[in-house]
Amino acid sequence: MKFFIDTANLDQIREAQNLGIIDGVTTNPSLMAKEGISGESAILDHYKAICEIVDGDVSAEVISTDFEGMVREGEILADLHPQIVVKVPMIKEGLKAITYFSQKGIRTNCTLIFSVGQALLAAKAGATYVSPFIGRLDDISTDGLRLIEDIRNIYDNYDFETEILAASVRHPMHIVECAQIGADVMTGPLSAMLALLNHPLTDKGLATFLADHKKLNG
Ligand code: G3P
Questions:
Q1: Tens-place pLDDT, residues 47-82
Q2: Measured from the CB, is residue 171 less than 6 Å from ligand 1?
Q3: Which domains does the chain have, with CATH numbers?
Q4: What is the pTM of this model?
Q5: Fewer CB within 10 A of the terminal residue: the chain, N end or C end?
């Protein structure tokens, strides 16, 4: 399973890249705003800076909600860097834009997916990635991981090439369970990835190794 980091923070992207654990980045307008990035040229420069840090795909989201606007924005984003994947919301105009981009060879990430029906439509339209938001489903007492499982079954039934990008990942067990189900990619915060590191027996074992070494070597 590929690991994408879900942030627009350059320091965190750099840290994850240096650890060698990420295969790409996802952003959204809220994450860009969180970093204080505003204005078209600053936004485009920021995406370029992200592409220079990581080797993999970088999702950059359109703001328009009409077909023409999405196409205009998406083409600018795709021209920016070969690693850019145009992120498009799951709305009717978005589906039309995904179909257009797919025919033009521009890669897309269909975002704000909350049902299998939506995931099926995105795959039919030729989305490169589909982003089901598991944490936000869990937030409303619905099983987010079950959605990943259901999409996996349907995509496998018909050999859809669209990759399942589990999004809105909040904690380490989301990551482990996504991998067990067979999500192609997960995107989450660095904190959730780093939490996979922790085990008390690792800490205890290391402390013992170092203490035993010190006894003989000072
Ligand atoms: O990038 C989309 C998604 O990962 C958002 O996550 O935590 O805001 O629900 P969250």
A1: 999 999 999 999 999 999 999 999 999 999 999 999
A2: no
A3: 2-216 (3.20.20.70)
A4: 0.96
A5: C
